[in-house]
Amino acid sequence: MKKQILIGMLLVSLLSVTAVPVSQAFSFGDVFKVGGIGFLINKFSTPLNNFINTLTFKHGAGSDYATKVVPIVSAGNKGYIGAAQVTGSQELVDQTEAVLQLEGNFNSSTFRVKALLPIDSTNPVNFSRVQGVGVSAIIDIRI
Q1: In the 8-state DSSP scheme, what is residue 109?
Q2: Are the C-beta atoms of 84 and 116 separated by less than 8 Å?
Q3: How far is residue 68's CA from residue 91's CA, in Å, rounded to a whole number?
Q4: Distance in angstroms (rounded) separating the CA atoms of residues 132 and 88
């Protein structure tokens, strides 16, 4: 009896794994990557911000404006895809929660355009643009 139950459970497990589409397996990995990127950005935002400020001052390109590192979110995948340093007045930088990346092709795909917009939310669907804040650095994360 126990042997039949065990075999039945193994068959159900095997069938359910083979029934899952391959694309769904990739999305699980994407979820972990997005969560991992979000974790890294939250953990390292202050040291990254300090490093960028030191780097720019060292090369004579420092700024007296407020800065902060925030995640870059994409309207396409609804997840974190990197990080950016934003700069502006302290009040506006404090309002900025993320940078939205919008992508498009121009002139029959001769040019690939990435628009980077400071926004007041990490939700790429429900946000307001923060006017008066600029993107001063892009941070790529190796995963």
Answers
A1: T
A2: yes
A3: 12
A4: 6
Is-contact 64 118, C-beta < 8 A?
Answer: no
Q: Parallel, antiparallel, or unpaired for β 80-88 and 134-139?
A: antiparallel
Dihedral sign, Cα of residue 96, residue 99, residue 104, residue 110: positive
> pTM to 2 decimals?
0.73
Residue 36's contacts (CB-CB under 8 Å, 6 or more residues apart) are 143
Give 117's strand partners. 100
Residue found by looking up tokens 């590192």 in the block: 69
Number of residues that make up the chain = 143
Instruction: State the pLDDT at residue 120.
Output: 97
- DSSP 3-state of 40: helix
pLDDT in tens, 88-118: 999 999 999 999 999 999 999 999 999 999 9
Q: Is the pLDDT of residue 75 over 70?
A: yes
Query: Residue 21: helix, strand or coil by DSSP?
Result: coil
* Structure confidence by residue, pLDDT tens digits, 35-61: 577 788 889 999 999 999 999 999 999
CA 84-135-88 angle, to 5 degrees, is: 115
